[in-house]
Model the fold of this input.
Amino acid sequence: MAGEPQADCLFCKIVAGEVPADVVRETETTVAFRDINPQAPTHVLVIPKVHYRDAATLAAAEPQLPADLLREAGEVAAEDKVDGTGYRVVFNTGSGAGQTVFHAHAHVLGGRGLDWPPG
Done:
């Protein structure tokens, strides 16, 4: 059921403390942790503690949570000191867009030049 933890979801397991992660921030509604395969010097994932398949589903069900994710993305950028030079926040939605874990999440990328358009 949407919003409920999923037994087979890696990010739900991180939220539950069943899988270790390099957590950099945690709030009542979000967890932010370093990506295990970073694509930039700063590469942090910000996830909601509740399970929704993707950003669009999350936004439709609980509109405040995407705002929480974006606020935390800004806090991550500030803590990693990339807010002054620029950073990118990415929501991949669907496998064709590169989503590999089907739990809504934002990638915070910074610390190097980020070309446009992205790959």
